[in-house]
Specification:
two-stranded parallel sheet, 204 residues, 8 helices, 48% helix
Length: 204
């Protein structure tokens, strides 16, 4: 039986994946910068604050990275956690997200629905901090939830999209997410990455 920390990704696979990440992220940034500029203006007009939100996440080998997103919440969203109801707090502590988050702006709801809030992560991909496909980058507080699987999680780059995003059932638990992340890491290949990208695009 493989150790939970043992990755199953050949050097040639990692090299080809990185080449794809560099070329595609550079191409998309050149093509989509007018859309990005328009979205940034719309975000500023919708609510006060910077159009870009950056948050510390855990990357490859537990290195901290600054994850970039178009801001989809009010600018003081982190401070508003203290206003959560007991039910919201319990939901947050269980999954680190709220199904109906009161901090999301009108423009933010559109960005999340379309996935456009993730567009600035093309910068993270180009810099080599992320890949197009991989487990989603988590915050420090989530890492203990992975238990003995934590080392395997940080043995690969986090991704813009991943296996559990496209294959998980709507009621998938956090434990289910972890299981799917580990399944991806153990079986990652260019074919599986292509399938995940195709399914991600078909859901938009």
């Amino acid at each position: 039986m493989k150790s939970p920390a043992e990755p199953k990704q050949a050097p040639i696979y990692r090299a080809l994946k990185r080449a794809f990440d560099i070329c595609m992220s550079a191409l998309l940034m050149l093509m989509l910068w007018p859309l990005g500029a328009a979205l940034a203006i719309m975000i500023v007009l919708d609510s006060k604050g910077s159009p870009i939100y950056a948050q510390n996440r855990i990357g490859l080998n537990k290195r901290h990275i600054r994850l970039y997103k178009f801001r989809s919440m009010v600018s003081n969203a982190d401070a508003l956690k203290s206003n959560f109801t007991p039910e919201q707090l319990a939901e947050w502590q269980q999954s680190f997200r709220l199904e109906h988050d009161p901090r999301i702006t009108k423009m933010g709801a559109f960005l999340r629905r379309t996935g456009l809030d993730e567009l600035p992560q093309l910068i993270n991909i180009f810099k080599g901090e992320m890949s197009f496909v991989g487990p989603r980058p988590i915050v420090e507080e989530e890492l203990p939830l992975y238990g003995e699987c934590a080392e395997k999680l940080i043995s690969v780059k986090p991704g813009l999209t991943g296996y559990w995003q496209v294959y998980a059932a709507p009621d998938c638990t956090y434990a289910g997410r972890i299981e799917m992340d580990m399944h991806y890491i153990d079986n990652a290949s260019l074919r599986i990455d292509a399938q995940i990208i195709r399914k991600t695009l078909s859901r938009r």
